[in-house]
Amino acid sequence: MTDDSTIPVRVRPEIAALPPYKQGKQADATAFKLSSNENPFEPLAGVLEAVQAATALNRYPDASAGRLRRRIAERFGVSDDAVHIGAGSVSILTQLVLATSGPGDEVIFAWRSFEAYPGLAIIAGATPVQIPLTDDFRHDLPAMAAAVTDRTRAIIVCSPNNPTGPIVTQAEFDEFVAAVPADILIILDEAYAEFVTDPDAVDGLRTLGTEGHPNVVALRTFSKAYGLAGLRVGYAIGHSRILDAARSTSIPLSVTAQAEVAALASLEVEDELLDRVRLIAERRDRALSGLRAAGWQVPDAQGNFLWLPTGAETLALAARFEEAGLIVRPFAGDGIRISIGEEDAVEKVLAIAASVVEDLPEGHAGRGLA
Ligand SMILES: *Cc1c(COP(=O)(O)O)cnc(C)c1O
C-alpha cells in the first residue's frame, strides 16, 4: 500500500530534490572493477593481524582515535591538535562544510570534480558554486578566486582532481591562497597525494608548515593508496580551532578501533606502501601513453585513474567497456573515469580503448583537435 514516488513525511525541499542514491555496478567475479579508484592490492603486511587483535567489539572506540592522531602528528611534524581523524576524509569534508556554511552561504569548487561536493553544500543548506575546469581539465584557480563573494564560506580544491586527473601546482595554489580573504576556509582535498609524481604539485603540508596559512586545511585518506577503503579512515591537518569546529559537527565515535589500528599498522610499513604506489603510478603512466598513442586526448593523470572525455557518447562507450568485463565509471554527457587496477586490466583497457576511439566522430573531444 505504499506509494514509492512520494516521501511520506515532510522533508527539507532541497533534500527531497536530491536524486536517490544508486549503488554503482558491482563487478561479477570475472570482471575488473575499475569504477571506484580502489587499490587492487591486499592490505599491507600486519594490517589484518592488527584488525583481528582489536577485538573489543563490545566497547566504544577512542573518541579522538588518539593513537593514530599522535602517529600522524609525528609523521608530519605537527602538534596532535593540528590533526583530526574521520571515518573517511569525506566525513571530514562534510564536517568542515557544516561547520562553515549554512543557508545563504556559498561553497565554491571546480566542476567537474568529486561527485560528493555538490551534495555536501546542499545538505548544509548552503549554495554550491561550480567553476568550470579549464579546457585541459584543470582547476581554474583565478576564476575560483574571482567567484568569491561576501557569502563565500568554504572553497574546495581537489588535487589531483577526481575524476579528470591533473594536479594544481604549488605556485598556483600559493597565488590562490594569497588572493582569497584569510577568513574563508580553503579545503585542499589530497585524496590521491601519494600517487603524485609531478614535482610541481601542491603539497598541503608544505603550505601549512612553511607558509603558515591558518585558513588552509589539508585532507588525506587511507582509502586509496593505503588500500583501506572498506574500513573508512581519513585525516585532516590544519588549525586546531578549525578542526575543533569540524569535530563539533561530527557523528560521535564513528572512527572504529579496527580502522584506527589498521591505519597505524599501515603507517608501520611505509616502504611496502611506497612500492605498490610506485607500481600503480607506473601502470597509470603506461596506460596514459598507450591511450594517447591510440589517438585519445587524455588529460594529465596524477592519481590512480584516467579520464576519457567521451562527451555525448559516454554511456554507449562505457557499455563497450562493460561488455569486455571492465566496470568503469561513466559521467553521462561528460566522460569516463577508469581506475588503475590489476596489471591484466591495464592491457584490457588499452585494447578496448583503442577499438573504441576508432568509432568517435572526427573532431570529437576524445580524439583531440589534431
Ligand atoms: C576517494 C576520495 C575521497 C576520500 O574518500 P574516503 O574514503 O571517505 O576517505 C575524498 N576526496 C576525493 C576527491 C576522493 O576521490
Give an overview of the whole structure.
37% of the residues lie in helices and 15% in strands. The protein has helices at residues 13-16, 47-53, 66-76, 89-100, 116-123, 141-146, 170-179, 204-211, 240-248, 257-268, 270-293, 314-323, 343-357; strands at residues 32-33, 83-86, 106-111, 127-132, 152-158, 185-189, 216-221, 234-237, 305-308, 326-327, 329-331, 335-339. It is built from 13 helices and 12 strands. The termini are far apart. It folds into 2 domains: 13-42 and 271-359, Aspartate Aminotransferase, domain 1, CATH 3.90.1150.10; 45-268, Aspartate Aminotransferase, domain 2, CATH 3.40.640. The longest helix has 24 residues, at 270-293. Helix 2 packs antiparallel against helix 10, helix 4 (89-100) crosses helix 9 (240-248) and helix 11 (270-293) runs parallel beside helix 13. It has 370 residues and is an alpha/beta fold. The radius of gyration is 21 Å and the shape is globular. The model has no long low-confidence stretch (mean pLDDT 93). The site of pyridoxal-5'-phosphate has 14 residues, from helix 4. Belongs to the class-II pyridoxal-phosphate-dependent aminotransferase family. This is Aromatic amino acid aminotransferase. Pfam families: Aminotran_1_2 (PF00155).
Any descriptors?
370 residues; alpha/beta; Aspartate Aminotransferase, domain 2; 3-stranded antiparallel sheet; 12 strands; globular; binds pyridoxal-5'-phosphate
